[in-house]
What we know:
Layout: E1 2-8, E2 11-17, E3 21-23, E4 50-51, E5 57-61, E6 77-81, E7 85-93, E8 97-107, E9 114-122, E10 125-127, E11 130-132, E12 135-142, E13 149-159, E14 169-179, E15 183-193, H1 196-216
Antiparallel strand pairs: 1-2, 3-15, 4-7, 5-6, 6-15, 7-14, 8-13, 8-15, 9-12, 9-14, 10-11
Amino acid sequence: MKKIAITFGATMLFAAVASAQSYAVQNNSFELPAQPGMGSYDSTGFPGWSHSGGADWGSWWIPDGGFITIGAPDGNQIGYMNGGSVAQQLSGGLVVGTTTVSAYGLTRNDGLSGIFELELWAGGTVSAGVVSGGTMLTSTLYTPGALNSAALVSASYSASASDALLGQTLSVEITQVGGVSQSDFDDVHVFATPEPSTMMVGCFGLTGLILRRRARR
């Protein structure tokens, strides 16, 4: 929580203002399993996530020769999959405010890069790399850009106090939807930011109470 000070004459009011809430994404930058050195990769997956099957997926320490010659956006390693989808259910539920999911997508130097969809879900369950029985809140596409590059993509969902999905557990899914061969991604984050009106309502209510008490004196 952050505090702001509001002064009325000789009276200074300190009001607590809610800050952004971050959701824990397991192995969000795909540093596990740890690879032995630059250019090494693993095709047996990465912990914290499940995969839909039928294609290689794992962690990859970059740079790696002519395949991709930039470093990872976060840490040493990135996640990759040669098709399908990966998903993870988080430990927290949807709250009032704006919830954002973000990740980096990477384009290989040889151009063999796929388009993937980054999705945020509420409710349901995660099994075999897919969210089932939930509601997709928002999504965005990573489309390969310039060769040997990385770009941040994000999508947001705003929930009011009357949203029927409040409290439902959040999940992240990354699905390869097109392109040539492989989806490469890194640094997945989910965080919620309270709306300004929600953050200040308690402050202004307390301010009004103080002013009314002073007026009675």
